[in-house]
Design brief:
The chain is built from 16 helices and 20 strands. By secondary structure, it is an alpha+beta fold. Strands 1-2-6-3-5-4 form a six-stranded mixed beta sheet, sandwiched between helices. A six-stranded mixed beta sheet has the order 9-10-8-11-7-12. The radius of gyration is 32 Å and the shape is flat.
Length: about 600
């Protein structure tokens, strides 16, 4: 199928029993079922099928995050228990319903999914929300968790590192609208292992256009970049163009890391690399290595050396020959067409170029060391590294932003526990400042604001930085928080249920200093500064007068008066200067 065919909306065909076009050179039949693009290929054993939709977490906002997963759960609810092996999955750029069983089982499953998508069981809405929260609470995280947040911020692909915060806000109408808009025939691809369509398919879905993958956002001013992580290992992620060369490079990188970090250095137990499509044209590479605390510095150095080696093109021909042979061997699998169906359906869904088996073989055989070197340089140029211990500036990486670049100019509210910490509230944003911290969320770039009945506000900026406003800790009132409520876009606001009183933070009385207001410091500066200037000025004028009238000799009594004036002026100027410095440091 060429690009023109892929851009043409699919048309509704006759019932599934109608004659379909014959298979292509690779044994795959292309057809449509009720407007859904469909791929068929034979495979022995039970029938497997999958229905892809081009919608995932990257299509949501932080304030609506979880809505796609919620639709998936609601669509599967009516299937209940049974012998059919089925499941659903919500990823960053797609949602996939798949099943394996008899032809009748698969037909019943697919028909049921589509019927549910047309009429979701809204009586299950709140129950499924609780199930999703429970699922999230028990979900483990791999070594790359958190990397997407640092790279993309709190939008698009960065949402995969966040909890599904939108569940508190999503309504029945939101769910219906999302399903009708995104779970459409033109935004779907169906694959089934079989020569022909099974009898009885009734896959009626709303009509709508195909949705391209969202344009990725960025929270990184520059790459390659690094940040310090608490994990015991080093994680590198990078975004590269989807290509055979990049795929083979990842295989070689994994081998090099294993060889250098485990077999030779003995620093790591796990040292590996993985490649996976991100969207239509880009892929994500993840490389990871662990180490004990006492070996982390050596492991990091060896990891960087491996990356430098592949960037320089110092790739063993034996490694290239080996990974090429492994890649070519995948094309010799029995029933290859059926085995490739899910990946081919994904490419069709994302509108990524599809290679025939012959074309794919040719690309693998054509990859050179120069191609691998170019892919390695792209991997390094777009890299983001989570590193334990020491910084990586020495390796040519830039520290990823750990603080906001600026603060707002607004009214200051000091922490009741620590006067060095303060909130700054302005008409266009809010900042949290204190020793070692500088965080700002501009209202126009706020992806989420939680509002609690007790007055708390939790804000998340598009760049992933957070500002938490707890009135109990800052002595700030609802009226003084009005700029936040006016400035943040309503679509980014979620009103939360009441919190358990035990969860509302209270100031530690042992640390409480009381709010130090801007006005008190201003008054103190005037009280100290004006007398200091007056005394200093009078002293200076007196000294000048004495010198002009005493022929260079100052009587002892006058000298004592001048010395007293200098001392008094200094005693007033020193605390005045301290107050000024403390104010600059955000202690007021």
């Amino acid at each position: 199928m060429d690009d023109h065919d892929m851009d043409t909306p699919a048309t509704t065909i006759a019932p599934p029993s109608a004659t379909t076009p014959g298979p292509d050179a690779d044994g795959v039949t292309h057809t449509t079922v009720n407007g859904i693009r469909t791929l068929l290929a034979p495979r022995s054993g039970p029938v497997s099928a999958g229905l892809f939709f081009r919608v995932g977490r990257a299509d949501e906002t932080l304030a609506t995050s979880g809505i796609t997963h919620l639709v998936e759960h609601l669509a599967l609810h009516r299937h209940g228990l049974g012998d059919l092996h089925y499941n659903g999955a919500t990823a960053a750029t797609y949602t996939h319903f798949h099943a394996t069983g008899t032809p009748a089982d698969v037909v019943e499953y697919l028909n049921g999914v589509c019927a549910a998508l047309r009429d979701l069981p809204m009586d299950r809405l709140e129950t499924e929300k609780e199930i999703l929260r429970t699922e999230a609470a028990g979900r483990g995280h791999g070594p790359g968790h958190g990397m997407a947040l640092w790279r993309y911020g709190s939008r698009t692909h960065g949402l995969t590192d966040y909890t599904e915060a939108g569940l508190h806000k999503i309504t029945e109408q939101d769910v219906r609208d999302w399903a009708a808009d995104r779970f459409t025939a033109e935004n779907a691809v169906l694959w089934i292992t079989g020569d022909t369509l099974p009898e009885g398919l009734d896959l009626i879905l709303p009509t709508g256009g195909w949705r391209p993958t969202p344009e990725p956002t960025s929270a990184l001013p520059a790459t390659p970049a690094y940040f310090h992580g608490e994990s015991g290992g080093l994680v590198l992620t990078s975004v590269v163009a989807r290509s055979t060369a990049a795929h083979l490079l990842t295989e070689i990188l994994g081998r090099e890391l294993f060889r250098a970090l485990r077999q030779k250095g003995g620093y790591s137990y796990t040292a590996a690399a993985d490649y996976g499509p991100r969207d239509t044209d880009s892929a994500t590479v993840i490389a990871f290595a662990d180490a004990l605390p006492e070996k982390q510095d050596a492991m990091v150095g060896a990891f960087v050396d491996v990356l430098a080696k592949v960037r320089a093109g110092r790739i063993d021909e034996a490694d290239l020959k080996s990974v090429r042979a492994s890649a070519l061997a995948r094309f010799d699998l029995p029933e290859l067409a059926g085995a490739r169906l899910p990946a081919q359906a994904m490419d069709l869904l994302l509108r990524h170029r599809h290679l025939t088996v012959a074309e794919a073989r040719a690309e693998v055989e054509a990859v050179t060391v120069a191609d691998l070197r170019a892919a390695a340089r792209e991997l390094w140029a777009n890299g983001l590294v989570q590193v334990p211990g020491r910084a990586l500036d020495w390796a040519g990486l830039t520290a990823a932003p750990a603080h906001s670049p600026d603060l707002v100019t607004g009214r200051r509210y000091s922490s009741l526990e620590d006067p060095r910490v303060a909130l700054l509230v302005a008409d266009d944003g809010i900042s949290l400042t204190g020793p070692g911290r500088q965080t700002t969320v501009r209202y126009a770039a706020c992806s989420l604001m939680h509002i609690y009945p007790d007055g708390a506000r939790h804000l998340v900026g598009n760049d992933g930085f957070n500002v938490t406003v707890e009135p109990t800790l800052y002595g700030i009132t609802a009226a003084e928080l009005a700029p936040l409520d006016v400035g943040v876009t309503p679509s980014s606001v979620i009103r939360m249920p009441p919190r358990d009183p035990a969860l509302i933070p209270q100031p530690d009385k042992r640390k409480t200093t009381g709010p130090v207001r801007h006005g008190w410091f201003t008054a103190l500066l005037w009280i100290l500064g004006i007398p200091a200037l007056l005394v200093g000025g009078v002293t200076a004028l007196s000294a000048l007068f004495v010198f002009r009238t005493s022929d260079g000799e100052i009587p002892q009594d006058q000298a004592q008066v001048l010395l007293a004036g200098i001392i008094v002026s200094a005693m007033l100027l020193i605390p005045w200067r301290i107050c000024v410095q403390r104010r600059k440091q955000g202690l007021s």
